[in-house]
Structure formats: structure tokens, C-alpha cells
Amino acid sequence: MSKGIAGKVAIIGVGTTKFGELFEQTYNDLVVEATFEAYDDAGITGNDIEAAWLGCYLPLGWGYDGTGGPALAESLNLYPKPISRVSNYCTTGMEAVRNAALGVASGMYDCVLAVGAEKMREVPPRGSLVAQHVERLHPLFGKGRTAPGSFAILATRYFEEFGAGKKDLAEVAVKNHYHGSMNPKAHFRKEITIEQVMKAPPVTEPLGIYDCCPTTDGAAAVILCRADLAEKRFGKKDYVLIDGMGLSCANGYINTQFNPRFDFLGFEATTEASRQAYEQAGITNPLQEIDVAEVHDCFTITEILNYEDLGFVKKGEGPAFVKSGASRLGGELPVNTSGGLKSCGHPIGATGARVIANLSEQLLGRCGERQVKGAKRALGHTLGGPGSVSSVFVLSKN
Amino acid sequence: MAGIINAGAHIPFYRLEGAAVRGVWGAGNPKASRPIASFDEDTITMGVEALINAGGWGNINVEALYFASTSAPYAEKSNAAVVAAAADLPESAFTADMGGSLRAGTSALRVALDAVRAGSASRAAVIASEIRPARPGSPDELALCDGAAAVILGEGDDVAAEIEAIYSWNEDFIDRWRIPGEDRVSSGDAKFILDYGYIRQTAATVEGLLKKTGATREDIARVLIYAPDARTHAATCRKLGFPAESYPDQPLVARMGDAGAAAPLLSLVEALQGAEPGEHILVTGHGSGGDAILLRATDKIASLKESRGPAWCAGRARPISNYGKYLNSRKLVPGEELRIFSSPSILWKEARQSMRLMAGKCRSCGDLQFPRQRVCTNCNTRDEWDEVKLGQHGKIYTFVHDHLPPSPEGYITMATVDMEGGGRLYGQVTDCDRDAIRVGAEMEMTFRLLHQGEGYYNYYWKFRPAS
Asked: Distance from B241 to chain A by nearest Cα, in Å?
């Protein structure tokens, strides 16, 4: 058996809920909607699922459900199947898919389910954003750190090093809002201008409100099977293959900002996770070999850094890349055609699964006006903690 | 010869100006500029600053610490032991908390001197630290002063100011008082307490000292009287018959206000830093009797000039931007309620790291790491560390102004700072002008109250611009 994942696992069904402030829906509703959409897409029922993984980052942080595998079994009546919950910061949803893929690739299971779900808006945005860092974590170290703060602190250094500025970041927000305006399932479906971004109230300077993704509810589901069964057993002519998947923990959670070897100009976790995925997928020139990408734009600065860390462009060239239109729909490598985290929002456990679902739809040509014509190879990326963990998938159409 | 070897002070960065108070209440001394502890300061943190200013960063070699305050954060649980940890005193040092009277500062000095003379401590540190409470709009709001002073006593050739004599007496007297939990100082009849309390009692204290030592008024170059205001200071000196040139026209109380138990030591530190060899200095503490202390500057007196004292602190002070921020800082208006996690067992087991800022230097590869891991993040060696104290200064590598966490400032500046001598530290910035924060800016460590998670005080270090 060859090393690596390429050619072993197929994605035969995906589903996503509408992302947004879903005050009328429970965690249970989100899981059911996303999963049954994926069942329908795959043409299967829950009876075909042999094992499942739930990605839910912090169930007790803002809601009450999703604490373990039984929470998924309960929502979907998947008793008494083997199900576990995974959690890996903001890569959590992708981690559910990765573990599901490993379950298939190991030969243990033929058909499995990965669900990512997070119900964040049972508390105010401040309750989730601030409480995690102010009211929890180590009593002393890093007190005063917030999620946007731990990315904005890179923007300060990046500006210092490369002479970039707030306007460069605004380009990312404008592009992703433009993409999001065409995605019926996005949280925000409104175009914005550079001026609006520049004038927006500060959140974590130099980042303003439009540089940050919102706090959102949502779920996404992915059904995976042995690649050789996609057509033979499930009757799929068109499906998606996992060519490569990498994961890297390149820094700690508390001590990232204390690390003297961290240059605050990019994330080694992304570089390493993409190296693993590219190697499995046989990719040597990502800019040319990848047709569409979903990358982790939790904050605008992050997308700029992702371009560089994923090897699309060299260090320092991220701002020019977005400004040139290369990452816009119709450009050389459209990035975040879903609208990204900026427009879709970032239900933490859901995001990684949503990325895999959206890219699968691109590869199968189902994206309507957002469609990247002839997309054959896709890259999905998530980044978690203060940039300490990253997950990268390379997908292709069969 | 026993006396003062080192001296330092800490007076807070922010001032409440008369104009800000008048803008809100329509009254108040327009010339007042009252030092106010920042939202992240208390008498423990100010005491740590003062002691580090006196004794230096790490290796303060004293065998006893006397911490005096009537406004210590803990009514039960040692305040002095927190100071000892943060100032990195030896664990073998005797620590004692003193309070209950505005005389606590001079009382602590006397007790410490006795310990040095008796040989129970070769060196002893004395801190007097106060945050003086006043109700919004009351005259005390501009008349009181927050601050801390520290002196280190010892014997021998290093003594910069010999303590020649101390005279103390007691007489119960109700002039000003505060019951635990009260948010203001109460006063008796103003005329009665000034004439019969402050002036008469202090005169008796000084007369007692002069009689005991045989010193004359002309022998004393600098007279520092504890008084609640400048007029009482002058009136007491006049009543005692001191020549006008021996007492300051503008004593500390006139410039900053009444710092309570910290006042005598603050005045003393200021006077010592301006004194010439051979000068005699008289300082008094007051409260139901009094303490009078007579010192003589030795030929080492100039060694005290370099320390950070009241003049240094005054040089960097800023008016607080508005009265609302002052109310917020002092928790005089209700703030956002936070339920911050903390754990006594975490604080205890990590104290050498978080309080004394001990980093680990890997014996195998020499890498300096903070917080220290079990396994070296550079070379993977397990548990081979030498403890190394982080430096006091560093340079900003990068930073962010974060508007999300609650803070009286409206935002919290977080910075990653490369420390002099190695190691990188990430934490909050305090007491600064926004413009001072930039990549490459020189910073220094300051010990602060971080939060009150679980109801007790959680202390840690912050950065502020180095001066």
C-alpha cells in the first residue's frame, strides 16, 4: 500500500446549512440539515454510514451540545455506530474530515460521515470572542489576548517589514464580500468598498470591523467512501478525490507569542501542512497547478499571509497578489469564492467541513455565477489557535 | 552605624487635576494635581515598584521586609509576601505586614532599625505604600495622594544616611479615622484636630526627640513634618521654632497631597536625594502620638541620587484624560462584570516563573525560554534547565491595540517584547502615551494587578515605556 492519501478516498456527498445568526435553529437542527443534504447528495441513508466524526470546537463555551460522539448519534439516530468528536481549534471541521478519510484509507470502513457544527450565537458575539480569552485560559499568561488580537499583532509586524498597510488588507475584505454576495448560504451577502473598510471602527488595531469574520452559526457535512466504491457501489460518475492532506502543529497555544523563533510574518503550520499535502498530491507549483482555493481568512491579514505560506507567491508579495485581481473570481487562482470566513462567517467546528463542501461543489461545477470554469484541482486550508495549527487538503475531480 | 543604604519611590503615572474635578463638580482646588494609582495598581504593586527602584532588579539581599499600609489589598493574608515574591527577595526573609495607623510607615522604619541593630536582620527593607480613598466630589479627592516609598536599612560603610535617633510616644486621639470597608476618611472638628491633634502632637514628638538627643533646631538642615496639608506643615514648623530655611516652602504634601502612611518616607526619600554629606534630616510620623526620626547624611549620600524617587516620578506624570476614566479606574462606578478563571494551585506552583520572572536556560543548547517547557523547544532535551531571571528591559518586536477586552483605557495594548539578556515576553502594556508604542520601542517591566479572578488578586507583569 502506498504512503499518502492520494487516490484512496472519494467524497461522494456534501451538505451545508445556511450560515448566519440562526436564532431559530438549534445545534440539532444544523446537524440534521447539513447531514441530510449530504445524504441526498450522495444518494445514501444513515444506514450506509459505518462510522462518523463530529467536529465541534467548544460546545460548552457557548452552547450545550456537541460535546462528544453521542451528540452526533443523538441528532442523526446513528446508534450504535462508532462516532467520536474531534477538536483542533479552527481546523476542527477539517479535522473531522481528515479523521474520516483516515478511517476509510485504513481499510476499516467503506463509507463514513464527517460533520462540522458550531452554534455560537446562543450568546452575544462578545460572549464568545472575549469570554474565551478574558474569562478562561491561563490565569496570567496571555491575559488580554483575543483571537483578532493574535492576528492583528502579525499585521503590525508585517506592515513594519514590508511597508504594507490597512488598504492592502481592505482589498481582501472587498474581494471576499464580492464573492459572498453571490453565495446564497453566506452570512453576509453584501458588497463593500475600500472606503467602508478603511473607515470602519477599530477592533484590534490595525484591524477594523471589516477585517474580521463575524460570529456565526452553521454546520457542514461530508460523506466519504473508498475511492473504488464511488462508482461501483454508490453509482457516482462524477465525484471528488482527496489527493493530499496535511496537518501541522507548529506552535503552542499559550506560548506562540513568546516564541523568539516566530517572526510574526507568516505561519509555519500552514507552510508545513501544505508541504505534506503537496507532496502527497505531487504538486510542485501550487499557483499553476491549483485552480480554486478556500483559505482561512479569519482576518484579512491572515489571507495575505496564507498566499505566501501556501506558496502561491513569495513572502511579502501577498498584497500585490490580491490587488492584481489574481485571487478574485476570473483571476489566475480565485481564492475564497464562497466569500470565505469573511462572508460565510466562522462557526469554528463547521468551517473546515464547509471548505471541503464548497470546493467539492466547485470541482463538480455546481457553483453558478461563482463557478471557476474548468476547475479540476482545489486547495482547502484552515488555520487554528494563534496560527499554531493548520490543515490543508488538495482535492481533484475524478 | 545603622541607617539607610538604598532608597526609592513610586508615585503613579496619572494625576487627577483640579480642572477635571471642577469640570464635573464645579469646585475643587484648581492648582491640585493629585497622583492617582492606575486601575492596575494597588499598594502591593506600588510597593514592589518602590522597592525595585530602591534595591534593583533581582537579588535584593535583605533578611527582613516590613510592608506598611493602611490600604493594603488584603485584610487577611500577607501582603508583604506578595511583595517579597515580586521583588525577588530571598525566601528566607522575614516578612511582616504593618498597618492600622498613618504612623505605620515610620513605625515600620523603627522596627526595621531595631532588627538591624539587634542583628536579627543584617539588611531590612521598609515599604510604606498607600492608596488614599475619597468620595467623588469630596475635598479629599484632590487633597490625598497615592504612592509608595521604600528604604533598605543596614549597617556599616554602605550607609548613606545614618539614623541617629528615634523618639516615639502615644496618646490616643480621634482626628481622622476609617473603619474597614469604608470608602472615605472621616474627620473630627477641623480646628480641634489641627491645633490639638496634628500640631500639638507633632510638636511634642519633635520636642521629645530634641530633648532625647540634645540636638538644637539649628543643627537640622531639613525638617519633614507629616501634615495633612501645606498650611499645617508650615504652622507646625513655625510653632516648633525652626528657622524658615530648614523646612520646605512647598513640601511634598503641597505639591501632591497627603499620602498617609507613605508620606513621611516619600518626603524622606526626596530629601535624601537632595542632601549633602553631614546634613541632619528630621522626619516625623503622626497618629495618636508620633514618631520622630533624626538622620545624618554620610559621605555616601550621593549614592541615593540615581534611584528613582519622587522627582523622577513627577517628571513623567500625566493628567488623566477625563474624570470618567478616573471613576472607572478606581471602580467608583460599576464596571463590566467578569468571571475570570484563576486557581490558587496554578498560581502557587508557577510562582517562580510568574512572580519572579524566572525563565529556563537549556543546559544542552543554551536556549532561553519563557514560559519554560519541560522539553526544550529548541533541542528536545528534557528537564535540563538553569533558572535565569528575565531582564527588566526589552524592545517591542510587535504589538496590537486591542479594543475587545474590557479596560478603563478603552483598549489593551498587547506587545511581544524581546528581553535584554534573552527570552521573549508577551503581555499587556500600561502607563503610556499611545505614540510611545511602536516596533523597536524600549520597554521595562512593571508589576501590576492583572485581575481579580475568583475573588483574590491575580498579579503579573506588564510593560511600560522605559524612561
From this structure: 55
